[in-house]
Structures are given as structure tokens and as C-alpha cells.
Amino acid sequence: MSNLDDILKSRRDTRHFTTDEVPDEVIQKALQAGHWAPSVGLTDATRYFLIKSNEVKTSIKKLFLDYNKKAAELTDNEDQKELYNSLKLEAIEEAPIGLIIAYDRSVLNQFTIGTIGSNEAVKFSSVCAAQNIWLSLTEQGYGMGWVSILNYYQFKKILDLPENIEPLGYFCIGKPATNYNNQPMLQQLHWKQKSEAPICKEISEIHKINIPDFELNVKTENDNKIDFHKLLQEKIDSKTKPVGSLGTLETLAFQIATVFETLNPKIEKPTIVVFAADHGIANHGVSDYPQDVTRQMVTNFLDEGAAINVFCKQNNIELSIADAGVNYDFPTNTKLIDCKIAKGTQSFLHVSAMSESEVQLCFEKGKSIVENSAKSGSNCIGFGEMGIGNTSTASVLMSLLTGFPIEECIGKGTGVSDDKLTQKQNILKKAIENYSGQNDLLSQLSYFGGFEILQMAGGMLSAYENKMLILIDGFICTTAFLIASKINPNIKNNAVFCHCSAEKAHIKLLEYLEAKPILNLDLRLGEGTGCAIAFPILKSAEAFLNEMASFESAGISRK
Length: 559
Known about the structure:
The chain folds into two domains: 186 residues, NADH Oxidase (3-Layer(aba) Sandwich); 314 residues, Nicotinate-nucleotide-dimethylbenzimidazole phosphoribosyltransferase (CobT), large domain (Rossmann fold, 3-Layer(aba) Sandwich). It is built from 20 helices and ten strands. Helix 12 crosses helix 15 and helix 13 runs antiparallel to helix 15. The relative contact order is 0.11. Pathway: Nucleoside biosynthesis; alpha-ribazole biosynthesis; alpha-ribazole from 5,6-dimethylbenzimidazole: step 1/2. GO terms for molecular function: nicotinate-nucleotide-dimethylbenzimidazole phosphoribosyltransferase activity; oxidoreductase activity. Its EC number is 2.4.2.21.
């Protein structure tokens, strides 16, 4: 072939191959074409792995079959499921050669031109390489098929790919056995019709974004609550028990009634919101888990398979998941609150994690989510989070806002080894040393912040304004509370610290805040699980205050 249009039109996702071998020179020419593809900032991050072993192919085929079964179950109806199952979507074992096209995210460990704004620019370079390989193979009379229906975590594990290598998928290469009537196979088999022409719309006007000012105004409480507090304490003390014998339950009952401004408080429509986002610092190996786990766990939340789903269901708590900045595009029909600021922050080892306007947007997004919850009738909201690398972000923010040395603010996070903990400590220490910005809160938050952490802080401030009970989970959420309390210290009146986590920095942070947690169960999962587990204790405090007999009503003599 020599005509470029013909090559482009005949570039098909090949799934039927002959048994012909693929000469080495064909592969080398195709890989060279991939190497010539555009590369953001000349990162040269694309990596290739060739597979000819039948044993390896069989293992990868098994991964495909597992996920293909799951995909079939997600079809809209039985007819579509039947059609889906009839499709040939791969040729892993039939194709003479398998190729893995991947990108090396460790290139982001150094400042990389072109990735400021989106770390995914490195991935996009590898996609350009895949396209060039496809076109080169087509021009040489060969074909390639892209297999993406895989569990990528298992895919990397069975191939022993390094943590920093992120595959685009598995590509089948060989001599095409058919030209599919010169049209995409899915179109030929009536799965979906491709539009005749590209979808293109000219943009001639800009849409102005209304970004609110970052407010640091502390609102003082002017209401005289002395009489109410006196009546409330008398109600608690008049219950048929020795004074103070219900311990923390009495403290909680007093707090709940004070927040709701009634002697007969009732928790209505309790809610937990899990905010999820990715962090650029995760590219430096500060976690034992790859960044894609953030996306995987959000999917798990949506599939109701995570710990927080179980505990919320157990305690009749409404659960919402908010995409504050996950490095992934979720389908638009998921039950997901879309408050994405960007696809993850930048690495604060080199540059500011976000802009000051993005900080302001985070607070506004968090505020909006909580306000909607309050309008629905909820007066109790818990905060949870998910984000690989967010313990690193929280550690740095804690150090800056409390004055504690960074060494005292670092924990094992997802459970890293001692060696990795030392590496994490050195990276964060270097990041703080590299910082040359101002010491004001806005500057620090924009340089070192995380989208989910700042949205939680904004949400907590909004919860206080809406006279809601605020349930604080573990270390990350307490760091978000720390930020919110720097803006309005009165927020502590509404805050219930649900547990003390196994993160050593959490103990120190709770002491700094003079906060007494309800539970100590060595939890370090996040997700808001501590809030859900502690919730029955809040209900017990509510119950005794509202339902327990008084000495007078029971006809029992006081001490």
C-alpha cells in the first residue's frame, strides 16, 4: 500500500489471523514507527514487551475470559448479552505474536515538560506509539488487535512487570485472515455503527467560571446558650443512673443536642461521603499500591463491594461517592458525584500540586455537596476518602500547619515496609525543603494539597454552617478537619472524632487538636469506615437522652 488514506481506512482491530509467522524485520520496522511517534516533552516513556510463549499467552487468555464474563453481565439486556457472547473479541492464543505497549510513569519522577496539567500526557504519548505501530503493520500487510478487557493488576503480576510500568493493553499481531468487508468488525456484526464523519464543533465563546474568594473569616458564636446548656445538663443528670456513669455517651448526647439546638435531638438521614482523588506524589513510589488502585476502589464502592458499603448498609447510612480528581474518566451513568477538579494533582516534589483557583474550587465543590445533603434533610454527615498517596499529602500538610517535624507526621499508610517508609520520609522532607512559597494557608494548600482533602475541608465548613453533626474518620480526614479549623475554629463544636487510627501521626494530630476519639480499633483503612462503625454509639447517646427514664418519672430517689 502507498496511499495514506487507504492505510488509515484499512487499519482494523484484527481478531482473525492466519498461521503465518511474522518476520522479525516486520516487527522491528513497526516498533521503530512507534518510536517515531510524538512524545510529550521527549519523555521517551513508551516501553514494549514481546510475547511468543504459548504458556504466557494461555495465562493472559484466562485473564481475558474472567473479565469478559464480567463484561457480558454488564450488558443492557439478554439480546445484547447474547450478541456480546457471540463476538470474537481477542486472538490471544491464535496470533503468532503478542505485544504489550506500556508507559513508564517513573519518568514523572523528574520535571517533565508537557505534563503540567495532566500526568496522563505520558500515557497519551504511548497511545500515539500504538497508532504508529498499527499503521506500520497495516502498510506491511499485517494486522494488530487491542485487548483491553483485562484485570490490569493481575496482568502486571503474572508478567512480573515493574510497578512503574503501566500497560495500555495486550496487542495481538499477525497476518489478517479477513478484511472484515473493509469495515470494523463490530460494525459488520451490528454491535454498533460508526458515524460517517468526525464529530466536530467550533467553539467561538468562552464560558466564565465563577470562582469564589477564599475566605478566612472566623465567625464567632454570639448566641447566649448558657440557659440551654444548663437545662440540657440537668436532663442528662436526671436520668436513672449515677451522674457521669455513661461516660462518653453523656458527652456525645450533650454535643448532639447542642448542635441540633434541641433537648430532644434526633439524627436524621445520616450520610457518609467518600471523596476520591489521585496525587502526583504517588508517582514517586510512596505507596505499596499503584495509582490505578484509586480508580479500582471507586469502582468497588460503586459495586457495593467495599468495607464502607458493608458498614453503611449495616447501620442504614446513606453512602455517596465523590470523584474529586481521580486519574480516570468514569462512565457518565454511574452513581458518582462528579466534582473532578483535574485528573490528579501534580507532584509537589517538583511543582505546585494545584493552582490557587483550584483550591478555591475544591472548597466550593465540597460546600455544594454538603449543602445538597443538608437540603435533603440530613443533619449528620461523615467524611471518608480514597486516594493512593494521600497519606503523604496529609503528612506534609500536618507538618506545615502544626509545626511538627515531618518525621513525626509520617506513617506507613497502606502498610509500606520500613525501607519504603524511609524512602517516603526522604521524599517528603525533600519536597518541603524545595518549597520556596509563602507561609500563608492558601499558598501552602495550593502547593501541597490534595483535591479530596480540600473538598472534605470545604464540606466540613459547610456542615458547620448548616448545623450538622460532623463525623471525622482517620488521619486523612482529621488533616482535612485541621485545615477547616484553621479557617473557622468553631467547627470543633460539631465534630465527632470517630476513632484513633493505627497511623502514629493520627495520635499526635488528635492530641494537637485536643480531640478525644470514640474508638481505638487499630483501623487504617480510610473510606469513612471509622464513621460508620462509631455511628451506633452516637445512636446510643441519642437513645438514652430521649428514651431513658428520669428519677422523677420512674419514682426513684436521687442520691
